[in-house]
Amino acid sequence: MRVRDLFVERNYVTTVNDTDTAAQALEKIRKSGFRSVPVVDSNDNYKGMIYKIHLIEYLYEQNGNADETLDKIVKHQEDCIEENSSFLDALLKIKALPFIAVTDHGKLSGILTHNKIEGVFEDAFGVNTGGLNLTISSTEARGMIEKLARTLRGENIEGMLTLDNGSVLVRRVVLTLEGEKSESEIDALRTKLEKAGFRILQIERLEKKI
């Protein structure tokens, strides 16, 4: 999966210009309703990120010059990612940021938000389709997924996420099975999994998102 499939496109992103004054930038951010926005130059090249709180601190707590340009206040000038970067690369870089700028040869293409990242994980859990969500463990880490797939033959797995990667002692898998199941069907499923060496740690019914 690539970042280009996930980011919010430039036309929908509020920005400030690097030639704006601190007062102008604060006014734009206030109107936007966001706590931070990208900074671009006249050619739409990404120049960093600016926070509403930093502008307020500069202007009202540090008695900064309202007509000063943003050079002293801009943050994360190097924190951006290319459109063709992988989802994993984006996940690692966005951790401490409210969003990460997406660029194409330096120009701002858009931003990748935490909501978009969370959407990917919701899809991996099968949240959108609903069903029966199971957290399953096994003491056999190697070959667990293959064995689990054989055990669940005939079931439609809507989403799957593995945990404890690299562990040689225990492995957990979170998966969502399609459709509703009665208590007797769940009991039968539990028995089948336990016979195969698995243990159900948690069961949750997920409502399908409309």
From TrEMBL:
CBS domain span: 8-68
Gene3D superfamilies found in the cross-reference section: CBS-domain (3.10.580.10)
One Pfam family cited in the UniProt record for this chain: CBS
TM spans (from-to): none
Keyword annotations: CBS domain
Organism superkingdom: Bacteria
InterPro entries cross-referenced by the UniProt entry: CBS_dom, CBS_dom_sf, Lmo0553-like
Protein name, entry field: CBS domain-containing protein
